[in-house]
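Notebook B, p. 112. Complex prediction, attempt 2.
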Amino acid sequence: MAEFLTSQSEDFSKWYNEIVQKADLADYSPVRGCMVIKPYGYTLWERIRDELDLRFKATGHVNAYFPLFIPMSFLEKESEHVEGFSPELAVVTHGGGSKLEEPLVVRPTSETIIGHMYAKWIQSYRDLPVLINQWANVVRWEMRTRLFLRTAEFLWQEGHTAHATREEAEEETQRMLQVYTDFCVKEAAIPVIPGRKSESEKFAGAVASYTIEAMMKDGKALQSGTSHFLGQNFAKAFDIQYLDENNERQYAWTTSWGVSTRMVGAVVMSHGDDQGLVLPPHLAPIQVVVVPIWRKAKEREAVLAAARDVKERLGKLVRVELDEREGLSPGWKYNDWEMRGVPVRVEIGPRDIKNQNVMVARRDIPGRDGKTIVPMSEIENRIPALLETVQNAIYQKAVDFRDGRIRDVERMDDFVEAIDDGFARAFWSGDREDEARLKEETKATVRCIPDDQPGGSGTCIYTGKPATEVAIFGKAY
Amino acid sequence: MAEFLTSQSEDFSKWYNEIVQKADLADYSPVRGCMVIKPYGYTLWERIRDELDLRFKATGHVNAYFPLFIPMSFLEKESEHVEGFSPELAVVTHGGGSKLEEPLVVRPTSETIIGHMYAKWIQSYRDLPVLINQWANVVRWEMRTRLFLRTAEFLWQEGHTAHATREEAEEETQRMLQVYTDFCVKEAAIPVIPGRKSESEKFAGAVASYTIEAMMKDGKALQSGTSHFLGQNFAKAFDIQYLDENNERQYAWTTSWGVSTRMVGAVVMSHGDDQGLVLPPHLAPIQVVVVPIWRKAKEREAVLAAARDVKERLGKLVRVELDEREGLSPGWKYNDWEMRGVPVRVEIGPRDIKNQNVMVARRDIPGRDGKTIVPMSEIENRIPALLETVQNAIYQKAVDFRDGRIRDVERMDDFVEAIDDGFARAFWSGDREDEARLKEETKATVRCIPDDQPGGSGTCIYTGKPATEVAIFGKAY
């Protein structure tokens, strides 16, 4: 249990690998680079999926499903796209006992196959916009993998939209970045920096890529969602044309945007501590755990009856579990649920029953400071309200942590210091090659050109050239 | 629209292929044997998924996710399993630009990889039962494919459970068959016959397979869900052992059970008619469509305002859509929504507004007989109630249809007549070879040995040997 968990300050990376397994989020699989998402981790993903899906539908999108396999020739139709993805492909060469005429790629992303279908479906301006999302598995053959953060197969959603005009497509790209930001802030309690990707970090085949960047508790950056403006690149490669109102043929403008099971890793590394996970109540598979406490056997029945009653009352309002396991001490159970990051624990013992109280403990505030006595009659009001308090507190803590580790710098030695445990913000006017050199020298990359700009102009931190934009730099997962 | 739809009596198979595409359920893909599930079809699948998922969770199951790829050697550990599936495998031989040391199979089903993980997770009787379900895509390289019914890639759920005793595992197998039956009857409005599969039709590697068989409107059978008792076959192949209460090592007993996107085909072929789909209200993506009607331009505003008001009021209770499309006649819209199988249509015109009424039409009863005038003030009560009425009526119609086409037969010429447009029920004591011959001679197979048995004994319809059980026979999809 908790005592065997490496502390974050000792080795953050080891802490991560341990907690993901100890908290039953995921396990390694016998297949190189693939993970097994265990029930607790999958339920967390289901919560993420459901919250995102609600937002997609509220912004007019519908779900559909496209084939897992893509003919190799499709990828080759967009030159940057195939160049970007070909080193990472898994290829099916045999089917039904025979060698295939054309090898099939296991989708690394679906712009190409969806582009092919859109060309068939879209004829007139009346067919636009097409606003489709897909929940699916994708495969990118990674050499160095880490559970949730980088796996050969992962689960994600990929939105693919087609529009009549450049403006509409650009609006869509921004809208979905905003949807992702809203989800991160309100549900995952993760503050993110929305902005534009630099040339070298943008999606293979995109005109422009946008990202939300989050800071993990080791100060490193995690790209948590991306939204791409694809211009007419894929429309031209797949011949997605429509007749406009003047009966003239036009190429459509397309976008794509995605969030993956990586988000589970973001939640773990944004909020977790040395006792284990700290889950935001909005996403926690179990929001409240009820732990019955007794010393003498004769107390057992009354305590369990009261605990079951509390569970049933709360069960109508929140996701609650009653820990009736036998042969485990209350202290052991506390550690166990703390490790799993359950936001609120309710303890009930003989004295609580006598006083018609329960003891309520917050996961995000360890020890006595996080404990409150709540009258049994008030649990329906107080516990759901407390979950909201915890949600906000976790978010605020993450904001404070991050803001304390973003430094505005003007000189390279300050830059290097800043990226050692956080982000640097500085004027930037480098090109692809400058970025590559900067990464080699410092291990930091341009995480994004943030939407939030100071304005004015300055000097590029790296090249010394005049610059009009600041960038956010950090070491990234 | 509807006028271009082949009638069921003319060519049922052609009717099916046409309606699946015309109603925007699915489309062919450029990848051999794979389908594209379009938004309307996918939403229907989401409804099926959600209803099943509720039932899985209510019976104590949790969701998880296992890798898409399975090492070829895993399949070979269970001899019947690999023999059954090897002709249908898609094989990945290259990853990340290199040839793989061991080829990976794209999962055709996941008993093997899950068995491997269970062997790792299960140590003691305290770890049992393990009750996990997975929603996933699977691939079986089929030569002759049909949208939803038989595709190389399909979506499904596969439950995989492990138990301490044979009895528990057998109970689980039956419980899940019952869950499937309940779903079909209450949500899909499809009557099914639950029963045991014959030797030659059982799952590769199972001790016994159970099925629910439905009759389509052409009298053919569609296997709609299966539940397998795997005995200790996979536990022995993957070494799933636990220490029992006496500290002795025992093999676990396992089950698996699945329902796939084939269920969409079952819904289409159980209820559809010459006008198109007839969707059961519980699963319909759109339960009610509101069609505004006006002739003169000056009527437009008032009609649209009333229609929007109706949509908003109903939107709190049911899944409703308002058809505001311009330039299409009401009649055209009626046909369009009928083709898509929307259970209830609400028509609003100037006269309805004057009388404070709406006209309500049922999809399942064509023409005037299905129309009722409903006071505007009563729509919140009447429309949801009407949806339940329609749900029950569709189910009853399917029961009556099926029951009229199941014939008890004792002679082969009656058998042949029965299976021409329905099912035959007859005493059966044949073996694998008898089944193969029967199929060759009549195209019919043993669909199941139904749970519901007349008792007593008789003479096998085919072999003439003494028999104690009746079987259901039919031509199958």
